[in-house]
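seq:
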Amino acid sequence: MDQTLDDGACDSRGQPATAPHGQPYSGINVLLLWSEAIARGFASSRWMTFRQAIELGGAVRKGETGTTVVFASSFIRTETTETGTEIEQDIPFLKAYTVFNTDQIAGLDGRFDDGAPCQDPMSRIGDAGRFFANTGALIRHGGSAAYYAAQRDYIQMPCPDAFRDDAS
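struct:
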């Protein structure tokens, strides 16, 4: 199992990527797409927007629903005050996109197929810590609540001893 994770053969349950460019998703998007792939039984780890599917000659199958991913960044805007002084402001923004798994798209002719499907991730609960470490997500432990801090892009979890057992 450890070798499978190291080889990237299980990236459909590890590091989702964009289909057109193979760019890996990061942060909360990894968790969103991973959980969606498990819940809906997708074998592929590749995702694309509706527009990308059309541009690549594919078509999202009728009735399929997409998954929301987010892009967070910031830009610098320079403003001139009434006194003529220039002030730089760092303006954060968050943009949401809807993406579809390549399993939901017809007409791609296998161009974005992954390797062999992975075993059910729930059977790998012992490797959960390793999996989350490999996502690249910043996970902090402490306190009594679990949450995602969008502005700082990290996941906060209670200390491990706050849980009933490892599976919790």
